[in-house]
Amino acid sequence: MAQIVLETNMKRPSIIKMFWEKNKFAWLFILPWFVGITGLGLIPMIASLYLSFTDYNMFDSPGWVAAANYTNLFEDTRYIQAVKVTLTYVAVGVPLQLLVSLSFAMILNQGIRGLSLYRAVYYIPSLLGGSVAIAILWRQVFGRDGLFNEFLELFGIVGKSWISDPQYALFTLIALKLWQFGSPMVIFLAGLRQIPKELYEASAIDGANKAQILFKITLPLLTPVIFFNVVMQMIAAFQAFTPAYVIGGGSGGALDSILFYTLYLYMKAFQHFEMGYASAMAWLLLLLISAVTALLFWTSRKWVYYEN
Amino acid sequence: MNIQPSVTKWLRISVIILMGAALMYPLLWMLSSSFKPNAIIFQKLGLWPTGFTLSNYAKGWVGLSGISFSTFYVNTFIVVGFAILGNIITCSMTAFAFARMDFTFKRVFFAAMMVTIMLPYHVTLIPQYIIFNSIDWINTYYPLIVPKFLATDAFFIFLMVQFIRGIPHELDQAAIMDGCNPIQTFVRIILPLLQPALVTAAIFTFIWTWNDFFSQLIYISNPKLFTVALGLRMFLDNQGASEWGAMFAMSIVSLIPILVFFTFFQRLIIEGVSTTGLKG
């Protein structure tokens, strides 16, 4: 007893030692990650929040401008245009892409021979779609002498350069997103396989028709996967950059018709070096994405089915 | 009785095949165009090249201002190689600590890590650029590689945490009984068992890094250091409409490594996407 009391009396260094003994290996293992998340994550985040209230331009030291960057953004017609373009791209592209991918997941999920081949073929566009090469291809497919116009010619329609037409340029990019429906489709396919077979057997015995099975069993049980795909595709679509950059020649296209948010941010930050202004844009993008995600999570309580 | 199902079945199969063909057509068109003489690329819709030539490839490969696509290729493989190495080592270390060890701040750290998965990288982009610029890392590969050695691709950490949680605890407990310290347990027991997750991480790091354009565009402006993506972009800017054949040829060349990768690891890639939602 006396010994123990004695020991606890000299405890100070020993608590530190115990603390060290408990943590030394784990902290060693997470050290690279910790350096990364503080040095390249947390500190830059705080720094960019600070910069967004300054006029920093890479050359002069940052001067405090309070909320001027934010108020200026809402009067910047190019910024408003970028927001419009991006919201259109997200609001049209994501639902269309998910609708097509869900439909084809259902078509493919009916016990078809050679499923893995079709799945692979459908998936290839998702694999390549983000690259510069595909953006170059797309520019040509929807160019004046492109593949799309040659296809229209078969029906006697004389096309134009869809890429340089401000009315249609954005739709060529939405088409590029649609072309990549394979990746959410693969996720839907995996989700469809998770639905217990017994439910279908039971409903067949009860004499349910196809529409009833679709709306009462398949879709409700698939809602968690639908939700997952909506969130992930939405976040990715807000950040799309490469196709707009390559197809628009780095400028935003005719009349800024494909001036994506990230493209305008890139121009402000790395062509005009308006780092403060671009930081404000980055924070508004984060707020925008968070708001839409939060909204989706809020609505999810109404339509996403969870087992428990 | 029997006619109805077989009609829908054939209808279904034709829809599937038609869609597959429509998806592949632009790619095949680019492939066949890359073998056509420049003058006739945009004259025929057909896939079969009427005048077959390899000159587009020869012309394209030479590249621009004395820098050929061989250089772009080697550069990209250097970046990709180090990115894979960094991700595999540091993400697995971090995942091991989160999955198997108890330490102070674990819950806070884990939550922070999960947040970074969803965070758009634009909020850290500008200060990161300022940091890398201030230590003279612009026009080096360090800004593309060093973050991977700091486990910044948090998604892979999460993937590996999930995988390690599936490995029976008895295995590392036995190792600890035999006197292994955590480092030995990690290297001898966990790492070998973690191999499938490591392969998945390596494959997706390859694809993402190969397709990446944004960070390369920002950090690399010296043509000698250009990656394939940057080389293609430079080619497009300089040759523009005049050399579409060569442009297409080099686009095809830039896609080949990914397609080869896909043929070899198809099952793993599709599984990775369908079970974890990794984006392709």
TrEMBL record, chain A:
It comes from the Bacteria. Gene3D superfamilies: MetI-like. Residues 83-296 form the ABC transmembrane type-1 domain. It is found in: Cell membrane. It is a multi-pass membrane protein. GO terms for cellular component: plasma membrane. Belongs to the binding-protein-dependent transport system permease family. This is ABC transporter permease. It comes from Paenibacillus abyssi.
From TrEMBL, chain B:
CDD domains: TM_PBP2 (cd06261). Keywords: Cell membrane, Membrane, Transmembrane, Transmembrane helix, Transport. This is Sugar ABC transporter permease. Pfam families: BPD_transp_1 (PF00528). InterPro entries: MetI-like (IPR000515), MetI-like_sf (IPR035906). The chain crosses the membrane at residues 12-31, 72-96, 108-132, 144-164, 185-210, 248-270. GO terms for cellular component: plasma membrane. Residues 73-265 form the ABC transmembrane type-1 domain. GO terms for biological process: transmembrane transport. It is a multi-pass membrane protein. It is found in: Cell membrane. Its main location: membrane. Belongs to the binding-protein-dependent transport system permease family. Gene3D superfamilies: MetI-like (1.10.3720.10).
